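Before relying on records like the one below, remember that each one covers exactly one chain. Contacts with other chains, cofactors or solvent are not represented anywhere in the record.
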Amino acid sequence: MAGDLPDYYFRIRENGAVVFKVDTENRQRRIELDEIATVNIRNGNIKPHGDRALSDEERRVITDWMAARTATLARRDMDDIHRAIDHLNLTAQWVQSRATDEELDEVTDALLLAMHDLRSVLVRRKADRITKGTKAAE
């Protein structure tokens, strides 16, 4: 079993992780997790735990994990957006075919405001991209 375990374990937190070194080579033959660092994905900080100095190998493992985690989160964000598009389409179908007047009264204002906000941001960002493209072509 010890051969199957990774050398490091990352306990995911909202903005990163707590990094543990996995220890199975002890007298009790128990799995022990030795906290070695805290990682912040947003600002890239790696903070060693206590007075510990991280080895080059530990820093490499942590930075590799940070890159992989950032890519995973980016893929999830795009998947969430595609799901939101699906939900908007399903919502339009629901409004057209099955929604009662009471149900529409409950959600119409919130949906209209959210869609207005989204539309405003999308139009502004698209205009920015077009403007940048025009300036780059000149």
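The first strand starts at residue 8 and ends at 13.
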